[in-house]
Each structure stands twice: as structure tokens, then as C-alpha cells.
Fold each of these.
Amino acid sequence: MHFEPAVFEVKNLEYKVNGQQILHDLSLTVHKGEYCAIIGPNGGGKTTFIRILLGLEQENSGEIRLFGVEHKKFRAYEKIGYVPQRVMQIDTSFPATVLEVVKMGRIAKRGLFSRESAEDRSAVEEAMAKMDVSYLRDKRIGELSGGQRQRVMIARALASKPEVLILDEPNTGVDQHSQQRFYALLRELNKDDRLTIIFITHDVGVIADDIGRLFTINQSLLTCNNPKEALSCSEMSKLYGIDAHSLHQHHHH
Amino acid sequence: MLEIFQYQFMINALIAGIVIALLASVSGSFIVLRRYSMMTETLAHSALVGVAVGLISATNPLWMAVVAALISAWTIEYLRSFYHLYSDAVLAIFLSGSLALAVIIVSLAGAFNSSLFSYLFGSILSVSREDVVTIIIFGAIAFTLLGLFYKEFYFIAFDEEVAQTSGIQVKWLNFLLVSIAAVIIALSIRIVGTLLIGALMVIPTVAALRYRQGFSRTILLAGIFAVTSVLAGMVLSFHFSLPSGATIVMCVLAIFVISLLINRR
């Protein structure tokens, strides 16, 4: 039994844009400490779903509760660390050092008139150490490799000490080796720090051992499964039009 | 060289110039990084409507310019965020619309004269004691607001959506930033002139960006470039009897070209 309120509780979510149904009757609950992956075809509404949770889009109808609080009344967005899709697309000439970017994670938390506190500084240092980017602190964000940049973005999200981390396909354009390292870091955050993680990905085979639940979203929730069962099920092939077996193989090598 | 300090108008102009250089370059950094550079041109032209109203109604043109630029900034932001119009198109509409309106007001009043010329291109002779006081009052307010919301503006410039999801009031702060810019632009027209103020807001930052530093150092560099250009430009303007706005812009352009050449790659 979960006595703590769920991190996210979504019921009968509907979202249309220009008359086109993007999400239909989507219901889904995520509890504290879970590590979930969301998969689904492009245009299936994964990213839209996350954007609605984050308040970037407005749902047409449905009920959403974040940490037990009704969506419209929810203000504690610093509890949610968000790493968007665009890791590789950021403006490389933007004048920002790694330290300056990670510090952004503390801005909303700090409030208007207060100055940087010892707590802010230690949170920033801790986040950089955890993501192993401390040695890059004075480098400009544009000088970093894809893998380094990705870790900096997550360090920024962690600096606000969130309770949940949402990652939207953060691996696009990042090399294999960095990805492996990145998955190990996520696993650690989930196991050691009890951070709830929601991970939108294409590459679910690689993390099947780590994740607790796998959501498949294509307008509505299609499956909500133990990941290994889902990977071998026929839903996958229906979704992607490929042989699900090959996905399963991928996970073993 | 030092004889310029013998003239009260030169001292007025130097004080006003330094304040404006700092304000324009710091606020300009956020404006450039948000890709709002064209906004400065548009607001400057809107400020001209205020100047025109001031000239014909015998009210202080500088105050009127502040009001006109603010109204224009708010209308542009409103249209952009609630009507989802293309922002560059909105800017173009306001730029020519304001200029047309200003020209009509001025010509109806038969006020096409040297005084208008000084508002178009800047004139150090025209900076009165009253102007200096106005610039310092509004400048202090603008600087305080920039100082208070510096981090937020920076975060929004870097990634607006992530800033919003982390609980920052992005819409409200966007309004605030363009308001601050509007006030600074309006204040600058005495020294730099309506047609040239955009350069002082945009070029110091673009030059500073060439040095590939973090944000704090980029802003610092932009400030140094702006103050240097304003001082050098005013001295040149004084010695060669040229419009101050034009000499200032030539100086800041020179700094930009040098920055480009030093930082090739």
C-alpha cells in the first residue's frame, strides 16, 4: 500500500490540438521511488503528456494530481527536475559556463530577494560531483561533447534537489559509451537517492534491467507492464511495425 | 582634452552617457540572447512618437518618450504572446507605424527643425540638467530591477521552457524585460538618438560574445565596450562638432571589428 500521495496521478486525460486527438482517455499513476520508462511511436503523444504534466500545455479534460495536489493549484515545480529533448540543439555560442548552467537549477528555489546561500553552493557542488562534471566547471557549454552536455543538464536538474526526474529522450546524438555511463548514473540516482525517474526513450532494451515499469503511450496507455514481459509481447511489434524479438535480443548483448 | 570639463553641458552629457552605456549594454545582453535585437529598433521608433508629442505639447519629450516606448513594448508583447503573430512581423509593423505617426504629428505642428534632428541622431549639446536627473532616476529603477531579476532573465534566455517548468514566472518577466528595455531606449535618445540607439544595445554584447566567456564576464566586457565607445564618441563629437550618436556608433563598431579580428575561428 502506498500511503504517501503518488508522484503523478493522471485520470482520463484528453488533449486535442487543432481538432486532432493527441491523447485520449490516458490514465497512469507513478509512485515515489519508481523508475519508469515511457515508450511509444513518434507522434504518439509521449512528449505532449510530459509537457502537460509540467504545465507547458493545457489539457482539455481529465484529472491530474502532482504530489497529491490538484494540477491547477500545484506550484512546487522545483520538486520536478526536467531534462528536455534538445541536449544537442542548444545554442553553442551561448555565453554560459558549466557552473553557471548548474547554478540555474537553484534560481527558482531561492526566491526573489535572497542571495546565494551556503546551501545553494553545496547543492550545486553536490550535483556536479554526482554527474562527474565538476572538473568542467569553467568550460563553456558550447565546448562540451554531447555526453558531457547531457550530464551538465542533469546536474542542473539535480541542483534543485528534485523528488522526481523527467528525461525526454536525452540520448539523441550522444555516443554509445557515454550512454552506458549515463544509464549507470540514473540507476544510482534511483537506487541510492530514491529519486523517482521517468524516462522517455526509444532505446528501452538497454535499460530493461533497471526499470520497474514500462508505459507504452500511443494516444492512450496501451500497456503498463513489467518491462521484460512487455518487450517480448506482440504489442511492441504492432506499435513499431518491427519484430519485437529483435528488441529483446538487443537487451541481451 | 581636459577642456571639455569646463563646459557644464559636457559634464551633463558625460554623466548621462556613462549611465546610459551601462544600462544599454547590460539590458542589451539579455535582449540579444533572447533574439530580441530588432525590438530595440522598434521601441526607439516608438519613443519618437513620444518625442513628437512632447515637442508639440510643450511637455518634456523625454518623459513622453518613456511613456510611448512602454506602451509600444507592452502592446508588442501582448500581441506576440496572446495572438501568436510572427514576432518579427509585429516588430516591423510597429517600427514603420510609429515612424509614420511621429512624422504626421511633427509635420502637423510644423515642428520639423533642428530640435527634431537632435532627437534622431543624438546631441550632447541638448542634454539639460533636467535630462540628467530624469536619466538618473529612471536609470536607477531600471538598474535595480535588472539586478533583482538578473538570474531569472539569464535562465529564461538560456532555456525558456525549462525556466518555466522550474517555477519561474516567464511571461511576467518577459514583460518586465521589454519594459526595462523600453525605458532605457527612451532615455538614450538624447545622447545616441532614435535611429542609432539599437547599435548601443546590441553591438557591445555581440562583440563581447566573440571572446567566448561565461555570462558574467560577457556582461562585464559588454559594459566596458559600451562605456569606452560612449566616452570616445562624445570626445570626438565635441572636437569635430559631429552628432554624438553617430560618433558613438562608429566607436562601438570599431570595437566590434577589432573583436572579430582578434577572435577569428
Amino acid sequence: MRRVEILDPGPSALIQDLGRPGHAHLGVPPSGALDQPALRLANRLVGNPEGAAGVEALLGGLRLRADVSCTVAVTGPSVPVLIDGREVGSHVALHLRPAQTLVLGTPAAGLRCYLAVSGGIAASAELGSRSTDVLSGIGPPPLEAGDLLVLGTDTGVPTGADTLAPPIPRADLTVPVLLGPRDDWFTGPAAALATTWTVTSESNRVGLRLDGTALRRAPERTDAELPSEGILTGAIQVPPSGLPVVFLADHPTTGGYPVVAVAHPDALPALGQARPGTSVRFRTSF
Amino acid sequence: MRWRRYGPDATLLDCDSLEQMSAVRAVVSAAGPEHVTELVPGARSLLIASRDGERGLAAIRALVESADLAHPPTVGGREVVLDVRYDGADLDLVAETAGIGVDEVVELHTGAEYRVAFTGFAPGFGYLTGLPEPLRQARLRTPRTSVPAGSVAIAGEFTGVYPRSSPGGWRLVGHTEAVLFDPRAERPALLAPGDTVRFRSLP
């Protein structure tokens, strides 16, 4: 059996693929890698289908040992990658021999690194996906030291010698949004969203919690209650505090606070890499 | 009805009533457009996402606006019967609030036919409508930090069953052994929007 052993998961390491969209009506979040282009790239580098399951490592720190010969690649923000103590680089296909140890350092910017292994991680799928959903508890548990990850069968040819420039996560993000569905619940929503917001440390895969100058409800909506309604990834929900939450992949599927605007899907990978302290502005025309 | 923008790939339809929302959901479900990626009912709204963006949403809008919502198609909702032991921690409180006896609470709760209006809160948690008036009661002032899995509860116009242990503020009237959600099952959720539900009292 082809396997790799987790020696240390680092701050948090989760199995992720492209998630399980299409089940929101059953109360099941989409989940999946927050930076999907990064996971897709890692899979391409090792010769996997783009949707194979890999590891999403928060702030690096992951250490693992191969049981078998395999091809691996690490993507996301630039991060030191070492094989048996030797720096080998990220964003490149790497060969790992049996008993060799792979170590991820800490990325200087950004949050989530992605590790793909040839054959993909063959955890059992739930609702068509191997992703760990931190909100609902669906999918494999978070990785722990000593876990043995079974790999699938190699299916493709690794990219080989290609090396790609890692994307550089920004300390300030401008996120295109479309106002609505509940922008009429707020006073001057476009201007309020265009101010500078700061990502707080309360953020996780469910959502980015932002601090800044609270949005104000329109006078006629001050004490209004919203019947629960559906939520999609990228929705910017405003609880009574006036401080918005940008929902990410593990978001609840319905909610009772108004959504003032929805972030453009193209902005989601960068939001998934936004560290606490990152500045965010929302642009309502694009 | 009012169509509201929900990002580039989705629209939120505000409905005048739960019945209207259910009718629109039935129309869209029955047509089964392949490009619709999510169809998420809410208490008074329906969220529709399309992988075809604007074009797909325009097609949905045309479909709904030309439909006879007074006579929606029947979409195969299931009939589910849940066996319940009415021994909930708040049963006396519910009886007292309603000004009736505990036996009457059980009679009212088992006598009604419910419909899964929408889901949320946790995978497999259905908000069931059809609750008799005397049982429409406020949430607990202080939510419990842990409600056992299988708890049958009421809050406002809804009744429901907690699929797994979680915090919760609904009033507990009983519990069921039924498995509400199993992510490895062919049909993971016992209750889906449109299903009808009855509760049966176990001695």
C-alpha cells in the first residue's frame, strides 16, 4: 500500500479537494480548498487530476515521511521546503524516495500551503468529496502526528522540470463585490464597504471576520429581523455589531443576518490567504 | 416576488410567503435545469445559483415568471414518520406556556402534518412548518451549550430534530433514535426540503 506518514501536522493540516458543492439545500457547506488554484496547480505538477485530495497546511510547519517513492509538490505562497534537511523549493515537482522526510517551513506571507502527492490522498469520500469541513464535521478529521495517509494509484506523468513563480499574497486587498441582496438594509453601503477593513484573528475556514467602522443599518431597518435565507461562499454578512463576515468555503448554508454584498468568485483564493492584520477594501464597481 | 442580485452567479428570490417559495422551488426542481448548481430554500426566499451566470439566471427568471404558481408541479417529496419519546427537558415549560397539559402537547405535536421548508444550522437539520398555534413558542432565554443528538424541539413557527449534539436554544419536547444525517449513506439527509413529516409517540 502506498502511504505517507504525518510526523507533525504543524498549526493545522487538513485534507482538502475541490469540495462538495451542490448540497446546500441539505445544510451541507461546499468546503474544499480555500485557494483552489493553488491546489489545482500542485496536483498538475505531480501528474494528478486537478481535483485530487491534497493537504492544506495552515502556516506551513508540516512534516511527513514517505513510505514509498512518490512525486510531491507544494504550492500556495512561497514557503521553504526541505527534503532530508536540504532546501528544494516550492512550486516544483519533487521526487521523494522511501523513508525521506519532507518539511515545510513557515511562509513569509499568506496562510495556506498546499501539498499534492502523486496518486492523491485516498481518504474515504463523503458526499463526493474528501474535504474536511470544520463547520459541520463532515470529512476526514484534522491530521495528527502518526496518521498514515493512504495514496491512490499514480495516474499521470508529473510535469517534471517546470518551476513556477509563487504568487505573492498582498498585505492589502481590493476585493470586487456586487451589492445585494440586502444592501437596502444599510445606510450608504458602497461607501462603507470601500473603507479600510482589517482581517481579525477570529477568522477561519468558515469566514473572515473584519474590524473597522461598523456598517449602519438604515433607520427603518434598525430592529428588523430577517427570515433565514440561503448563503453562498463570498457573501458578506453583517451581524448586529455592523462588523462584516466574509463567508469562505465552510460557511453555514442559511443565516438570519443580512448579506450586504457578495465578493466576486475570482477574489476568493486571495481572501483564503489573508492573514490577520491584512487590509481589505471592497470595490462595488468593476 | 422580487428578484435580488446575489453576486455574479446567483439570484435571491424574495417570496411573499412560504407557500409561494415552495411553489417556485417545485417549478425549478421539476424543470431540473442542468446549469443550476444550488437551489437553497429559506424561510421566505429561494437562492438559485447557476454555472452559466447571467444567462442561466435569466432563463430561470423566464421559467418562473411563466409558471402557474397556483398549481405547482408535484415533486417527489418523501413521507417520513419519526418515532419520538416525549420526555424532553422543556416539556413541562411548553405545556405551562401553552396553558395545557403535557398529554395535550404530545397530542398536538403528533397530530399535525409537517413539511420541511428549508434546512440549515447543521447538515440534515430541517425547519419543519405546520406547528399548531399553541406550540409556537419563543426560544429559551439562555440557549443550552449542548443539546443531545436526536432531540425533538420547537421554536417560533418551526419544529425540528437536532441531527447531532450541538448548542441550541429551542425548547426540547422529546427525542428520536432516527439517524437524521449520515454523510456516508446514499441519501445522507433523512429530511430534505419538500418532504412531509409526522411524529409518532412511543409509549
